[in-house]
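FAQ: What does the model actually see?

It sees only this:
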Amino acid sequence: MTLKLHCFGESGNSYKAALTLELAGLDWEPVFVDFFRGAARTDAYQNLNIMAEAPVLEQGDFTLSQSGAIQQWVVDQTGKLGGAREDRYEVLRWVLFDNHKMSSQAGITRFLMNFLPEDKRPQEAIKFIQGRLLGAFKTLDSHLSGRDWIVGQSLTIADIANCGYLFYPEPYGFIRSDWPNIDAWLSRIEATPGWKHPYDLMPGNPSDRA
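And it is asked to produce this:
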C-alpha cells in the first residue's frame, strides 16, 4: 500500500519526513495541505491529526505525525538511515537538538520574515530568535569540523532533521557561505542519490501563492 504524506513544500518539518521517505526508497505520495488557506484547522484535518500540523504519515488506518517520529518509523521499517546500532542514541540526540534548537527557531523566523505582511513582522522578536539561531549554527558548524556526517560514517535521520530548513531560499538569517562546515555537509547531502529540493519533492511553494 502506497504511503501518503500530508505535507506542503514550504514546510521544513514536512521536508524532513518527505526526504527520509524518499531516500529510504519507500513507495509514497504527497498529499497537499493548503496550510496558508487554513486546511490544517479544518475539522477533517484535525480528525486526522489533533495537533493540526504537517506532516502526517498515513497508511490505511495508521497515522503518525511529528517529523522525528515519522523519521524513526521509516528507520524501523526499512533498517535504513538509522546509522550503526551503537549510535542510535546519538542520532536521537541530534534529532532532538534540531527539533528544539534548529528547526523550531528557523521555521518561525522564516515564517515571520517571509509569510507575514511586511507591516506585521515583529522586528524585535525576529532579532531575538535570529540570535538563538546563531548559536545553533555555531554548534552544528563546530560539530561538523573534521567529519562528513553528524553521527557516524553515513547519512542518517540526524542529518535529514538538521538540514530541514537549510535548503530554502527565503531569507531568515542563514547564509550558507558563512558556515564552511555546514556548507560542505549540505553539498554532501545534495550529492546523495535521490536527494531533491523541498520545492521539487512536495507540492506548494511561495510562487504558487504569488
